[in-house]
Amino acid sequence: MREVIYSRVDEDLINSLGGWARNSEIFKSDSASRPPSDYVVIKLFEDGSSVVFNAPGELPRLSPVVVGGPPQTVDSTPGSGTKTRWRVIAHREEGVTTVVAKDLTRDSALLYGLAMVQFIISLLVLAVLALLSYYVVRQAMAPLREVERTAGEIAAGDLDRRVPAWPRTTEVGQLAYALNTMIGQLQESVETAQSKEEQMRRFVGDASHELRTPLTSVRGYTELYRSGATDDVDMVLKRIDDESRRMSLLVEDLLALTRAEGSRLELKTVDLLELSLSVASSARAAFPGRTVHVKNETSSVPVVEGDASRLHQVLLNLISNGLTHGGPEAEVTVTLQLEDEDVVLTVADDGRGMPADVAAQVFERFYREDASRSRASGGSGLGLAITKSLVDKHGGTITVDSEEGVGSTFTVRLPR
């Protein structure tokens, strides 16, 4: 801007040398033809005299001025007491040097005003840019603040929380996806650990509860023998051996139940008809003289995706339960059917049956309709609990329908 103003002033000074500055008569007039009030003309003669036209009371310092050179900026003469700046040009013609000077006070004020306007506009632009940048950065940081809040809630124990899903084409979207994946894996690990811990607590609680009775019996027979109340050593040893066997069976069943709840299934295609025939044959060998029928009412091979060894255990538990608790004359029938997307396997016996209140609790751990009779027969009360756990692991369901004097029917539904 300074160059533009000075260029205009220089143009006026050069024009004045070729125009009104040459006419001496113009300076004697009071008319509008006089030079502008901020111009000073000085004529210097060869004899050392000089004439000043339109002098405002102070003059520019002429010593730095180069005659015939371009316009220059100089200060006022020393001792004038002002700091006025002048733009000066000098030209020599016919022994007379003409100096034209312009007071730059108004031009400097204009430059100052323009600078202030530019400064204020710059401040306003900077303020607007700062506000705009703040808004843009705040909007850009909003997802990260949401991530921070979610991380705080997760740290407080809420593992169900997830970071909102943003497009994965952005860095924040990729971060959110990675965090959600990590949180999901963390939640799965925590739930698995909690499940294992709960299984262990249940195992310890169940074992301590169920082992209390046989341990008490062993201790009782030991104290009986030590006190001399009986001399029948064989009887005492037999009772201790029986209780030890029951404790061993109980621990084995507890471990089987724990494995059923916590182990992974080895899934493959299982032919339930072939499996049923195999288990029925094993049951006939284990219960000589007992009858086990297998009926296939399906129009195709009844196959499911499952763990063959676990399904073998399910079927064997149900058949053994019917032969053991149905009575010595009870027969067991295994029936295979297809319903919608499920294979339905029923194990029915025509034995004693159960009351409704007993049937509602048969899948509970350690439940026995007659505790003394069940313990005497070697049962731990865990067989059906293990069976239900294995069926649940396969994504199926198991129910029981029983009537006293008629028999019991266990129905297992497994997805194909």
UniProtKB/TrEMBL annotation:
GO terms for cellular component: plasma membrane. The keyword Transferase applies. Its main location: membrane. Its EC number is 2.7.13.3. It is found in: Cell membrane. The keyword rRNA-binding does not apply. PROSITE patterns: HAMP, HIS_KIN. It catalyses: ATP + protein L-histidine = ADP + protein N-phospho-L-histidine. Residues 138-191 form the HAMP domain. The chain crosses the membrane at residues 110-137. Gene3D superfamilies: 1.10.287.130, 6.10.340.10, Histidine kinase-like ATPase, C-terminal domain. GO terms for molecular function: calcium ion binding; phosphorelay sensor kinase activity. Its cofactor is a divalent metal cation. It holds the Pfam family HAMP. This is histidine kinase.
